[in-house]
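Progress narrative, work stream C.
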Amino acid sequence: MSKSQSSSGLQQPSQPFITKVGKFFEGLKENKLLGTKCKKCGTTYFPPRVDCAKCLTDEMEWIELSGEGELATFTVNTTPPESFSKYGTYIIGIVKLNDGPPVMTWLKDVKPEDVKVGMKLKIEFIESPELGIKYSFVPVD
């Protein structure tokens, strides 16, 4: 996927990509996690899709997801690839949202030894000069 600079200097996805799921990126700017839901069969998707994989319709609607859920599984990466080496050890998890599909994400503000399947997590939105607006999940206090 090619990227272009926005007026703020942040990397933004190229125009053909934005036309399909642009609302997702707009939602991130407003601290909202958006997915799509099939109007025909009710299947919810994250990341958002323009077509339903279950019933093959394009009758999709945008929905706001809660951004809260429970950790389903995780891995602690102690040997990151070179492009991620500046991050050191990091944790990737799959969060089962309370109101929707699973979300793969980075976990922050938690030590690897304290991560437990089933722990409650919530979304945190972050502005990154390298990646634009992004999100991670943090433990619920």
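Work stream C, second folded protein:
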Amino acid sequence: MNDPLIAIGKIGRPFALEGDIVVYPLGKTLEQLSVPREIIIADEAGSFSKTVTLTALAKMNQGIKCKLSTFDSPEASETLKGMFLFIAQEHLPEQADTGGFYHFELKGMAVVAGPENRLVGEVVDVHNYPTTDAIEIKKLDGTTFIVGLDPAIVRAIDRQKRVITISLDLLEEIL
């Protein structure tokens, strides 16, 4: 599999005696997956990687309960705590028809504002907070600021041109 891997969740604690785990999603991809689905578990350093089958998932108040093949006890699942779930980019559900996007697509996009499309900076990170997703923008002077992905602030995201247009009012506040 040469396709780039996309992180879709961070593994939390074991859940129940059958080896289920709580996963904290990075975006909405994990909850949109159909099961069974092949995924990859890896640590942040890249020193451990294993392909497993995601056999079940259920949304919870905080996180998503997942069942992975080969992990059938809390002790086995405990070894996964802090690792990440990945999926090959080619297996991501398509977002183009809905006007949606994936977080990784936003990184590196230019950010402009106003009718003149004045360059503000570039997206350097995307944050998935409990109440909203947000982008971190590095301004031309090197400083950064974070804005929520709210339609009142983010007016448009053009995936083809790789440009995000933000509210001119917001630009005036931050400058």
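The chain has two domains: 5-92, 103-174. No further action is required on this item.
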